[in-house]
Predict the structure of Cytochrome c.
Amino acid sequence: MKRKLAFDVAALLLALVVSGSSAHEAARPAPITIHSVSVNLPSSAATFPPGPGSDIAAKCLICHSAGMVLRQPALSQAAWKAEINKMRTVYGAPIDETEVDTLTVYMTKVNADQQSH
């Protein structure tokens, strides 16, 4: 009886080891291939006009040309604030929370000035 019990325990341990390794194998993610991508962004000679907040707006140039930002349709201050916060939270724009209000006022003014030209 002791021999049968020892055999059953050994078989159970072997089954656990085998099933554990196959479960571990199944959990391993498939290998991925990494390759380089080249992106050509449109150039723009436009610059942000001077004023309180232009230094913060310069951070937008990491992803956008000044011309692209300056050609946006007229947006309200609330809409600019929402856009700026989306860029921060969704896309990781390096704009500190303490800079949002200054940039919002700046972009609202610059945007309105561009619409009047």
